Amino acid sequence: MSACCTPGRACTGASTAVLPLPAVRRPATVETGRMAELPGSTFKMGDAFGEGYLADREGPVRDVTVAPFAIDTTAVTNAEWAAFADATGYRTDAERYGSSYVFHLLLHPKAAERHVLGRVPGAPWWLGVTGASWAAPEGPGSDLADRADHPVVHISYDDALAYCDWTGTRLPTEAEWEYAARGGLDGARYPWGDDFTPGGREMCNTWLGRFPHRSERPGGRTGTVPVTAYEPNGYGLHNTSGNVWEWCADAFGPGERVIRGGSYLCHTSYCNRYRVAARSHNTPDSSTGHGGFRRARDLAPAGATKERATA
To answer: Where are the alpha helices (DSSP H) in 144-262?
Structure first.
């Protein structure tokens, strides 16, 4: 089930000779205005409804204590990443490898001519595309016009760490991410409660239609939406369900890192991972058209025991 949600760099011929990592790392002052500061607390972590995939290890529900921390109220945007890239010259893994993964309905017509490396086995809606990157999300010919406030995508775990280093922050631990995503609703299915569409209202950006062939949104729209497109949860965080997957600091298993939140491609028919307890994983050098991140930072030391990332 993991490949359908998050194809890794080894899925197709998308891996090519990688260029060296850039040496530039410039420290910057952390932006605190867009971060929610959360007190340390104990909460119930995990799937309370028995809806998770066994291999994802969402359960059992257990009490987890987190120390005080701050976390971004939104995912990092295209505009913010562009400022980082301009200031440092940083090149993402997608740029250094020369390719990334694009959802088939989003592929730019110019990219369709000669840039598709292949389809992901078992998940043919994912295409390995040369030239796909944060600045060309749908492959060569695409750009970020009118998407400055959308979440940056095609970001690997290693890329996210580089941005955090530059801003004096870090990635959230998985426990911190889930605690913040719940917005104070202990044990709820979603950040807003247990009903996916309360009162008929759409609360997050997930797939609507017959996956993966046809979107039933106006104009057949799919893909990302602005990072503040939907109502925030009780802690002021936007889009912790749907829109883009978000990297966490923790290891999922050997050679893989945890991702959380689901994306615009999640749907009950095949990937019910937009619940707050849901989790998935990918390799640190992998990037996709639905993968981004948000940052965290420590607050004043407290006596609580924090669940730390696994080395």
So the answer is: 157-167, 174-182
Q: How far apart are CA 132 and CA 217, in angstroms?
A: 24
Residue 20 to residues 13, 91, 97, 110, 274, Cα–Cα distance (Å): 20, 10, 10, 28, 35
Q: How far apart are CA 106 and CA 50, in angstroms?
A: 33
User: Contact 130/99 with Cβ under 8 angstroms?
Assistant: yes
3-state secondary structure of 220: helix
How far apart are the C-alpha atoms of 285 and 93, rounded to whole Å?
Answer: 6
Model pLDDT, residue 63: 97
Helix 157-167 to helix 78-88 angle, to the nearest 10 degrees? 70
Q: Give the H/E segment covering residue 88.
A: helix 78-88
Per residue in 143-190, pLDDT (tens digit) is 999 999 999 999 999 999 999 999 999 999 999 999 999 999 999 999
| Residue 267 near residue 211, CB atoms below 8 Å | yes
Find out whether 154 and 287 touch, Cβ atoms under 8 Å.
yes
**Tokens 């040496």 sit on residue:** 23
Angle at 209 between CA 204 and CA 213, to 5 degrees: 125
- Name the token pair of 264: 């615009």
Give CA torsion, residues 37, 171, 288, 140, to 10 deg. 80
pTM, two decimals, is: 0.90
